[in-house]
Amino acid sequence: DGSSGEGAAASAVNVEEVTATAAAYAGLVVSATVEMISVHCTTPEGKYLYVSPACKELLGWEPEEMLGKPANHFFPPEVLAHSREVHDEVLDAVQQDQQVDRRPDCMQLRCKDGTYRWVQISTRLAKGCLVCVSRDDTTRHEVGPRTDPAPEPPAADLPSSALFPPPKHPLSLP
């Protein structure tokens, strides 16, 4: 019966189409996201093996300019010790075959123009490499002092009913 052969061929084509579609979507997500996705080797240098196109918008670098450079090349000198501690913690977990899934670390990365941008970096271990997602966190760090006055605390001599008035519509319980 030749119909089973046709069905198998049709299934193979569908799997190929699905695989191609999934790869296309993965590429679309990586190229369209504003978060920088990077892949690093699990060595003390943590060299960049891959950098998504979002690095251009986030830091001003072309992906090719970051490839092969150690991660600490992009940290400010005054935080190198801290960044080394964070990286060592990750490498220790890798050495002990532990899952690496760090909460975002808040750090600064050097932009191409020499300025630094605050980012949150989430790190996971995947297939023997460190995959990092870096998102802009600048606005959280550039908040200036409050200019509106703080509300006055309630006067201590007021009765509690003035501070916490009874509800307008009391709840009725069955």
Write a short abstract of this structure:
The protein has six helices and five strands, in the order αββαααβββαα. The protein has helices at residues 3-32, 54-59, 63-66, 80-95, 138-141, 160-163, and strands at residues 36-41, 48-51, 101-110, 116-126, 129-136. A five-stranded antiparallel beta sheet has the order 2-1-5-4-3.
Question: Number of DSSP strands?
Answer: 5
Order of helices and strands: HEEHHHEEEHH
Low-confidence stretches: 144-151
User: What is the arithmetic mean of pLDDT?
Assistant: 77
Hey, roughly how much beta strand do the residues contain?
15-25%
Question: What is the distance, rounded to the nearest whole angstrom, between the alpha carbons of the first and last residues?
Answer: 70 Å
User: What general form does the structure show?
Assistant: globular
| Rg | 26 Å
Largest sheet: 5 strands, antiparallel
Cross-sheet strand order for the largest sheet: 2-1-5-4-3
Approximate helicity band: 25-40%
Task: Supply the number of helical segments.
Answer: 6
Assembly of the depicted chains: single chain
Judged by helices, strands and strand pairing, the structural class is alpha+beta
Provide the fold topology.
Layout: H1 3-32, E1 36-41, E2 48-51, H2 54-59, H3 63-66, H4 80-95, E3 101-110, E4 116-126, E5 129-136, H5 138-141, H6 160-163
